[in-house]
Q: What sequence folds into this?
């Protein structure tokens, strides 16, 4: 019995401590999120598109898009836009903060800290969540509601339901609703089904067989409607730039290189997506660490992100290896399920990322990596477990310090982002000209002026950190 | 191989690095809410300083509120260099190679003087050359001749 364990607060006590710490993390993150404003690119344009059509027109128009099917995302935007009644900053930024709070709450629900060791692992666990490069675009950007963050939340909610001891009708219905809502928000919503089916395959019975079958039916229906009724395909190579090798290729370059034979590019994207979660390399399809290593220009941020991710993957790999017998006999406890669920989500998440690689698309896998690391670390420190002292010291020093550094860097860069976002508002008319957008009188100019006033006057740029820190956190997004 | 059983407070060492970062960020947030600004330079006090801090929004706001677009302003010590620097907004945009701000200022009436031929003094083109501002250099007509380092020294030597 350890001293900490003797000073036991009971299950509930350690759980509450972990939630209190989570609240602190969410509070800090929320403070930095309120430092951001509604950005010009991807947000102002979207808000302009909401002005004229009714909710019904907006949603029905989404069914005739070529590469995407996201009617509920646009419905959410329209509803919040109308509800805000001109208080855009408060509503949209408030929703972003609430999303971050919900994500952390659900994450801690899955971590389920019941002992002193569990509670001691919570800061590391949350650092893996918040410090990940796949997490950054969830908080750095909004459109102006971050649909990918919604999906990450729904994935955690689905996992929380699926990993329950026994099914209930209410939870079954909620899981199905989560799936339908998610999949019609962003394509990554398919991962809700993956989480539920994966958990069921791993022996979890929080979701009933009937509910899973219903959800599977909904998935088949979605895919059929998408393909055969609405003829919505996947994004083509000509739609966006994507990382390849040591650089980002513009659509024209992608077409020239892979236009006739896209499969090598798709395979590259899937492999890169898996690798980015496990190794933090490549990022957005660009192998920056390898480039810096071979050119002798290694940057502290690049090194720390790769080293800390390798340590996290090594820990999860160690867990899977030591529990291989359970895999053979297909008998899992909760921590096994968390780890294997991560592997399943990683594979599925990478598979759906085949058209192009973006850190944000892999954010659900990044979230589940944090849970897997927590489960593996819990096993490492299991009562009675005897581990080599040097390995313990090295592994957990790298993990704790590396991921703490990444948390600091991500917050530092949220500050820079706050200034960057506002800088675009300074010359917003130039941006409109470049995008060939003509504002519709009188609503368009009124929205532009309100958002510009928010960015420049009502919510001025948060204080900028000294540039002396920049070389430590010079992150290549 | 040395083996041991991890016990007691050693677990808490695990929590220390990420918890310290989180608590430090919480303290930073708290002090900012209380009106202080540890670890940051605080609010920009002039247009050039805002530009150097990459706070283009503050620069635009100060200009819209009546600050002179060609007015020399103070950039406090520790922001651009260990010493305080006096510069015009355009010079500040060159010093940080901010083409966006350079364009904004020039389109709002700032005097772009690549080379002061009347007085034979080096101008913005020379400053961009001295500082290695590659992006901004493409936005300024090239100067016929620039004594190396003279433009930068002229800014740094301002009384």
A:
């Amino acid at each position: 019995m350890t001293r900490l364990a003797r000073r036991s607060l009971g299950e509930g006590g350690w759980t509450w401590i972990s939630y209190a710490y989570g609240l602190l993390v969410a509070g800090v993150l929320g403070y930095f999120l309120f430092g951001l404003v509604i950005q010009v690119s991807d947000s102002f344009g979207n808000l302009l598109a909401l002005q004229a059509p009714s909710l019904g027109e907006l949603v029905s128009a989404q069914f005739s898009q070529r590469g995407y099917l996201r009617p509920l995302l646009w419905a959410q935007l329209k509803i919040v836009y109308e509800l805000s009644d001109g208080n855009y900053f408060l509503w949209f930024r408030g929703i972003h903060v609430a999303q971050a709070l919900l994500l952390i709450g659900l994450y801690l629900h899955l971590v389920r800290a019941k002992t002193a060791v569990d509670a001691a692992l919570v800061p590391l666990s949350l650092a893996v969540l918040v410090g990940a490069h796949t997490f950054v675009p969830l908080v750095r950007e909004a459109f102006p509601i971050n649909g990918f963050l919604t999906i990450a939340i729904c994935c955690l909610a689905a996992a929380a339901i699926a990993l329950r001891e026994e099914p209930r009708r209410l939870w079954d219905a909620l899981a199905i609703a989560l799936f339908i809502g998610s999949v019609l928000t962003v394509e990554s919503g398919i991962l809700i089904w993956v989480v539920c089916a994966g958990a069921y395959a791993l022996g979890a019975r929080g979701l009933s067989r009937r509910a899973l079958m219903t959800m599977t039916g909904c998935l088949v229906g979605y895919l059929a409607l998408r393909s055969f009724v609405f003829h919505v395909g996947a994004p083509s190579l000509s739609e966006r730039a994507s990382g390849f090798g040591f650089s980002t290729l513009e659509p024209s370059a992608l077409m020239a290189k892979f236009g006739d034979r896209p499969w090598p590019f798709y395979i590259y994207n899937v492999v890169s997506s898996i690798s980015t979660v496990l190794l933090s390399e490549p990022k957005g399809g660009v192998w920056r660490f390898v480039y810096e290593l071979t050119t002798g220009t290694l940057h502290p941020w690049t090194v720390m992100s790769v080293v800390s991710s390798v340590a996290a993957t090594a820990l999860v790999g160690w867990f899977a290896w030591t529990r291989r017998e359970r895999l053979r006999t297909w008998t899992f406890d909760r921590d096994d399920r968390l780890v294997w669920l991560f592997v399943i989500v990683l594979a599925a998440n990478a598979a759906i990322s085949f058209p192009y690689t973006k850190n944000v698309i892999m954010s659900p896998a990044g979230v589940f990596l944090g849970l897997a690391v927590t489960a593996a670390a819990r096993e490492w420190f299991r009562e009675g477990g005897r581990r080599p002292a040097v390995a313990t010291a090295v592994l957990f020093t790298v993990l704790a310090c590396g991921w703490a550094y990444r948390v600091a860097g991500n917050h530092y860069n949220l500050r820079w982002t706050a200034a960057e976002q506002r800088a675009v508002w300074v010359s917003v008319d130039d941006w409109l000209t470049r995008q060939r957008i003509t504002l519709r009188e009188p609503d368009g100019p009124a929205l532009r002026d309100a958002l510009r006033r928010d960015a420049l006057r009502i919510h001025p740029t948060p204080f900028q950190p000294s540039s002396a820190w920049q070389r430590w956190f010079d992150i290549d997004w | 191989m040395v083996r041991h059983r991890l016990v007691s407070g050693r677990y808490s060492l695990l929590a220390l690095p990420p918890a310290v970062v989180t608590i430090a960020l919480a303290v930073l947030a708290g002090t900012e809410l209380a009106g202080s600004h540890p670890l940051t330079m605080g609010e920009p006090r002039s247009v050039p300083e805002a530009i150097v801090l990459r706070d283009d929004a503050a620069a635009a706001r100060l200009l819209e509120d009546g600050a002179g677009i060609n007015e020399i302003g103070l950039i406090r010590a520790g922001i651009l260099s260990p010493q305080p620097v006096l510069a015009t907004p355009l010079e500040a945009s060159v010093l940080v190679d901010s083409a966006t701000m350079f364009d904004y200022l020039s389109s709002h009436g700032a005097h772009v003087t690549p080379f002061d031929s009347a007085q034979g003094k080096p101008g913005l083109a020379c400053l961009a050359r001295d500082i290695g501002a590659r992006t901004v250099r493409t936005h300024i007509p090239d100067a016929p001749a620039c004594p190396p380092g003279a433009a930068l020294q002229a800014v740094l030597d301002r009384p």
